[in-house]
């Protein structure tokens, strides 16, 4: 089958797309793919490295307030539709999948208008503007949180979960162990992963920097991912080697599924793909949602974990180094607390989302 995939901007939209591509390849080794993203998004770095044919269109998002920028956006959308239509004519996909971000707007819209089966994947509990707009035209909306169903036409919604979560669950534990030691961490100590989403988060970095002198006395260690753009500044504080006793600091992790398999606790933003990964694995978490996202959707994402006891929530405005360390101590120092959080996470985690989405795609192919 020929599959056109589009999604971009941040890791939370790109990794589900890549996981889906790998799942389809596993089921159908003759499948062919085209990925449409933007030149500036993270996808332009990640996707070509995966040897997936990659093309771009130029697009930006709508401002919620009246603005001249929106006139430019409409113009970009229409030229995006034209460019996407040309890519579609050339590639002749059997199905088109959008995994979120502005870029999939014109691509999925162009495909739907040509009568090609289309599906969008929504990772969040509150959808963004692009998927809401596309929901009028697509055949199905595959969702990850039950809560998001109410925003879409009922008859089109299918709860599949997030395909990246299945990939993480299936990652090799043995390779995870060797990845952890390659990073310079001990396999004898429990590990806390600190990560501020795919781009890093300055407020989390600021809090972690204030904890540096507290780690040397701990029985556990920290893998601290700063985000590429923040790394240089953090290195100035931590030193060239990126190592303080019990802390290893890196800008980005490319094999995150392997790392997630081997950590005991995660301190993170509440991006939806991260949450799908950790609930599928049953990994306890301390979540500091970004308050700078549309409709405060990260806090809503986070609360669905907190409600089942899988996560502790710290609002950014209430975060401090002391609070962070005391929550980490509380969870890692109490086997019972940790186990309860793990059970809570597993209760809502979905481990087979890639296969579910694949079967949804195949159903459409049978109908055409
Ligand atoms: C600021 C913003 O708009 N964030 C949104 C963006 O977040 P963001 O891109 O940060 O998304 P997520 O936290 O959901 O996912 C990040 C992805 O990147 C991976 N990863 C992260 C760090 C790293 O070093 N290596 C790595 O591989 C994670 O394992 C995960 O697969 O998309 C999410 C999914 O739609 C939304 O819920 C978030 O609100």
From TrEMBL:
Pathway: Cell wall biogenesis; peptidoglycan biosynthesis. This is UDP-N-acetylglucosamine--N-acetylmuramyl-(pentapeptide) pyrophosphoryl-undecaprenol N-acetylglucosamine transferase. Its main location: membrane. Belongs to the glycosyltransferase 28 family. MurG subfamily. It comes from Evansella alkalicola. Its EC number is 2.4.1.227. Keywords: Cell cycle, Cell division, Cell membrane, Cell shape, Cell wall biogenesis/degradation, Glycosyltransferase, Membrane, Peptidoglycan synthesis, Transferase. The gene is murG. Residues 3-143 form the Glycosyltransferase family 28 N-terminal domain. Cell wall formation. Catalyzes the transfer of a GlcNAc subunit on undecaprenyl-pyrophosphoryl-MurNAc-pentapeptide (lipid intermediate I) to form undecaprenyl-pyrophosphoryl-MurNAc-(pentapeptide)GlcNAc (lipid intermediate II). It catalyses: di-trans,octa-cis-undecaprenyl diphospho-N-acetyl-alpha-D-muramoyl-L-alanyl-D-glutamyl-meso-2,6-diaminopimeloyl-D-alanyl-D-alanine + UDP-N-acetyl-alpha-D-glucosamine = di-trans,octa-cis-undecaprenyl diphospho-[N-acetyl-alpha-D-glucosaminyl-(1->4)]-N-acetyl-alpha-D-muramoyl-L-alanyl-D-glutamyl-meso-2,6-diaminopimeloyl-D-alanyl-D-alanine + UDP + H(+).
């Amino acid at each position: 089958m020929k599959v056109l995939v589009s999604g971009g901007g941040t890791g939370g939209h790109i990794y589900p797309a890549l996981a889906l591509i790998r799942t389809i390849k596993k089921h159908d080794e003759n499948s062919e793919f085209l990925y449409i993203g933007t030149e500036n998004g993270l996808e332009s770095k990640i996707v070509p490295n995966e040897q997936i044919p990659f093309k771009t269109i130029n697009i930006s998002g709508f401002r919620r307030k009246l603005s001249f920028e929106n006139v430019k956006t409409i113009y970009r959308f229409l030229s995006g539709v034209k460019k996407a239509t040309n890519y579609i004519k050339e590639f002749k996909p059997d199905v088109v999948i959008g995994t979120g971000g502005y870029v999939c707007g014109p691509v999925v819209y162009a495909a739907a208008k040509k009568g090609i089966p289309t599906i969008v994947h929504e990772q969040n509990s509150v959808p963004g503007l692009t998927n809401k707009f596309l929901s009028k035209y697509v055949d199905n909306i595959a969702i990850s949180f039950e809560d998001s169903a109410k925003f879409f036409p009922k008859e089109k919604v299918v709860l599949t979960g997030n395909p990246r979560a299945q990939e993480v669950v299936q990652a090799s534990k043995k390779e995870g162990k060797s990845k952890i030691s390659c990073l310079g961490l001990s396999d004898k100590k429990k590990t806390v992963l600190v990560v501020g989403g795919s781009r890093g988060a300055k407020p989390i970095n600021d809090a972690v920097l204030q904890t540096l002198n507290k780690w040397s006395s701990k029985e556990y260690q920290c893998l601290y991912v700063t985000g590429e753009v923040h790394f240089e500044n953090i290195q100035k504080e931590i030193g060239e080697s990126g190592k303080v006793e019990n802390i290893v600091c890196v800008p980005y992790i490319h094999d995150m599924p392997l790392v997630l398999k081997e950590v005991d606790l995660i301190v993170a933003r509440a991006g939806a793909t991260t949450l799908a990964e950790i609930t599928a694995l049953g990994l306890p978490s301390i979540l500091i949602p970004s308050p700078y996202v549309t409709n405060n959707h990260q806090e809503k994402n986070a609360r669905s974990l907190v409600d089942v006891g899988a996560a502790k929530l710290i609002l950014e405005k209430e975060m401090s180094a002391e609070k962070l360390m005391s929550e980490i101590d509380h969870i890692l120092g109490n086997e019972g607390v940790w186990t309860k959080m793990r059970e809570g996470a597993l209760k809502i985690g979905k481990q087979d989302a890639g296969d579910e989405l694949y079967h949804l795609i195949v159903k459409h192919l049978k109908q055409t």
